[in-house]
C-alpha cells in the first residue's frame, strides 16, 4: 500500500510528442485504431449483476471489492499526477461551503477556462455527427488511461494488471476505458469513455448508460458521483463520455425535497418511480427504484432519447451508488445566444453544466469566490432552468416516452436514507479525498 502525498504538477505536452519507446502504431501510443488493439492496458472486469444490492457497505465481500476499486482508481490517478499529466494541480484549489440553507459549494479554479480545451462544435444542436477532424478521445495518449472497464464472464469482479487479449470475450478494438480528465474539477476526476474506437458522438443510449450505472454501483461510495452533459448543455467534446469524481460532502441537489410524480403504468410495473425537485433553482426529475438496474436505466434512457430527438439540452447526475439519477433539462446556452443572460452572470464565465447544477460551482475569478453567496448561486442556477410552463410540457412528453404514468401522490420526501449516509460519513469541513491507495503498474 502506498500513502498518497500531494506533489507539484506541471502542464504536460506529451500528447504533442512522439514517444521514443513506442515502436508500434503511430508512435504516439494513442487510443486510436493504430495503437489500441495491440495495447496491454489493465482490465477491471466488473460484476454484471442485474439486481440492485441493498447490502452495499454491509456485506464483507462487497466492502472488499468496492475498497479495491476505490484504491485502484485513486492510486492510478495519483500516479498520473506524479507524472505531470494534468494541466494544473486541482488539489491546491480553494473550496468552501457558501453559508445558507442549501450549502452550495464554491471552488476557485483560476485559469481552468484558459487551459481547458475549447468547444469545437455548435451549441444549438443536441445531436451532431462525430467529426474525426475535431479533437476526440482516440487522440489521447494511453498514459492517460487508468484501465479498461468491461463486464466479467461470471458474477464476480476481477482485476487483470496485464490481461492477455482477448479477456472476458471482449474485442479490444471497442474497449470501454477509464481515463483521467487532464483539466480536473476535483480530486479523482475521471472520464468513462464507452467503446472508444466506435467513435460514438455525445448521445445517450441503452448500452452505454447502463455501463455508467455499473461504474457508480461498482464504486459503491456515496462520495463518488457520475455526471453527463449533452451537447448544448456544456459538453465540450462530441465523443461519448461520462465524468466522475470524489467530493467528501453531500451535494445540495441530493438534499433537495422531492415529490413523486410518476410510476410505471399498466401491467409492466418495474418498480421505477419518478419525483420532481422542489424548492431548488433548477427544475428537474429524480429517477429511483426499479426491480433491476436495467429497469432504472431503461426509464432514464427512454426519457433522454426523447430529449435528444427533440433538441432539448440536458444534464444527468448519478448518485447513491447508482440508485438515484437526476435528469435536468436546461436552456442556459440558448438564453446566452438570445442575449437573455445578464452581463453580470456572463462576466463570471461560468458555464453551468452537471456539477454546477448539482451545487458544486467552479468559479474562475477570485473576487467571485470571495463574494460568493447563496443568493448569487441561486440567481445563476435559476437561469439554467426551464420555465415552469416549458418544464411541465417537457415532463409530460418524457413521461410518455418512458412509459410512465403521472400521478398526484403529493408526498414530499427529503430522502432520509441518503441523509443518514452522509451524517455518518461527511466531514465537518470540505477536504480533498485522501486515502491509503495502491499504485499498480
Describe the overall structure:
Strand 11 and strand 12 form a beta hairpin. It contains twelve helices and 18 strands. With 441 residues, the protein is α+β, with helices and mostly antiparallel strands. Helix content is 26%, strand content 18%. Helix 5 packs across helix 11.
Mean pLDDT reading:
83
Task: Give the total of beta strands.
Answer: 18
| Structural class category | alpha+beta
Order of helices and strands: EEHEEHEEEEHEEHEEEHEEHHHEHHHEHE
Strand sequence of the main sheet, in spatial order? 6-2-5-7-8-10-9-14-15-13-12-11-17
Query: Biggest sheet, in brief?
Result: 13 strands, mixed
* Residues in helix, %: 25-40%
Shape by Cα distribution:
globular
Tally of helical runs = 12
Tell me what portion of residues adopts beta-strand conformation.
15-25%
Terminal CA distance = 13 Å
Regions with little confidence, pLDDT below 50 for 5+ residues: 1-23, 53-58, 167-172, 416-429, 433-441
Over all CA atoms, what is the radius of gyration?
A: 21 Å
GO molecular function: GDP-D-glucose phosphorylase activity; guanyl-nucleotide exchange factor activity; hydrolase activity; nucleotide binding
Catalytic activity: GDP-alpha-D-glucose + phosphate = alpha-D-glucose 1-phosphate + GDP + H(+)
Enzyme class: transferase
Main location: cytoplasm
Offer a quick outline of the entry.
The protein is of the alpha+beta class. 26% of the residues lie in helices and 18% in strands.
Amino acid at each position: 500500500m502506498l500513502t498518497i502525498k500531494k506533489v507539484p504538477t506541471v502542464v504536460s505536452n506529451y500528447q504533442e510528442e512522439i514517444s521514443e519507446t513506442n515502436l508500434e502504431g503511430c508512435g504516439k501510443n494513442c487510443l486510436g485504431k493504430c495503437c489500441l488493439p495491440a495495447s496491454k492496458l489493465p482490465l477491471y472486469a466488473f460484476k454484471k449483476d442485474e439486481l440492485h444490492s441493498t447490502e452495499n457497505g454491509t456485506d464483507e465481500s462487497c466492502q472488499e471489492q468496492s475498497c479495491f476499486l476505490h484504491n485502484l482508481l485513486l492510486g492510478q490517478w495519483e500516479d498520473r499526477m506524479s507524472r505531470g499529466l494534468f494541466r494544473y494541480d486541482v488539489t491546491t484549489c480553494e473550496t468552501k461551503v457558501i453559508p445558507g440553507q442549501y450549502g452550495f459549494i464554491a471552488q476557485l479554479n483560476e485559469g481552468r477556462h484558459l487551459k481547458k480545451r475549447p468547444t469545437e462544435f455548435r451549441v444549438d444542436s443536441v445531436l451532431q455527427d462525430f467529426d474525426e477532424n475535431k479533437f476526440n478521445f482516440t487522440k489521447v495518449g494511453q498514459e492517460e488511461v487508468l484501465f479498461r472497464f468491461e463486464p466479467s464472464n461470471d458474477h464476480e469482479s476481477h482485476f487483470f494488471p496485464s490481461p492477455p487479449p482477448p479477456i472476458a470475450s471482449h474485442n479490444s478494438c471497442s474497449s470501454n476505458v477509464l481515463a483521467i480528465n487532464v483539466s480536473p474539477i476535483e480530486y479523482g476526476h475521471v472520464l468513462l469513455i464507452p467503446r472508444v474506437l466506435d467513435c460514438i458522438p455525445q448521445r445517450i443510449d441503452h448500452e452505454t448508460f447502463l455501463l455508467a450505472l455499473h461504474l457508480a454501483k461498482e464504486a459503491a461510495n456515496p462520495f463518488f458521483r457520475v455526471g453527463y452533459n449533452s451537447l448544448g448543455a456544456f459538453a465540450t467534446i462530441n465523443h461519448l463520455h461520462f465524468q466522475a469524481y470524489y467530493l467528501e460532502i453531500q451535494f445540495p441537489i441530493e438534499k433537495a425535497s422531492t415529490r413523486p410524480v410518476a410510476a410505471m403504468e399498466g401491467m409492466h410495473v418495474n418498480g421505477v418511480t419518478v419525483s420532481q425537485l422542489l424548492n431548488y433553482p433548477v427544475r428537474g426529475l429524480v429517477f429511483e427504484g426499479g426491480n433491476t438496474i436495467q429497469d432504472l436505466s431503461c426509464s432514464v434512457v427512454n426519457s433522454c432519447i426523447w430529449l435528444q430527438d427533440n433538441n432539448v439540452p440536458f444534464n444527468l447526475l448519478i448518485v447513491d451508488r447508482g440508485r438515484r439519477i437526476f435528469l435536468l433539462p436546461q436552456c442556459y446556452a440558448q438564453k446566452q445566444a438570445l442575449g437573455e443572460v445578464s452581463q453580470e452572470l456572463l462576466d463570471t464565465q461560468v458555464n453551468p453544466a452537471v456539477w454546477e447544477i448539482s451545487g458544486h460551482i467552479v468559479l474562475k475569478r477570485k473576487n467571485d469566490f470571495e463574494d460568493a453567496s447563496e443568493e448569487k448561486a441561486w440567481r445563476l442556477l435559476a437561469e439554467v432552468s426551464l420555465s415552469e410552463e416549458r418544464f411541465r410540457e417537457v415532463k409530460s412528453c418524457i413521461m410518455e416516452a418512458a412509459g410512465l404514468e403521472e400521478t398526484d401522490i403529493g408526498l414530499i420526501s427529503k430522502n432520509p436514507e441518503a441523509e443518514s449516509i452522509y451524517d455518518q460519513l461527511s466531514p465537518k469541513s470540505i477536504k480533498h479525498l485522501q486515502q491509503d491507495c495502491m499504485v499498480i503498474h
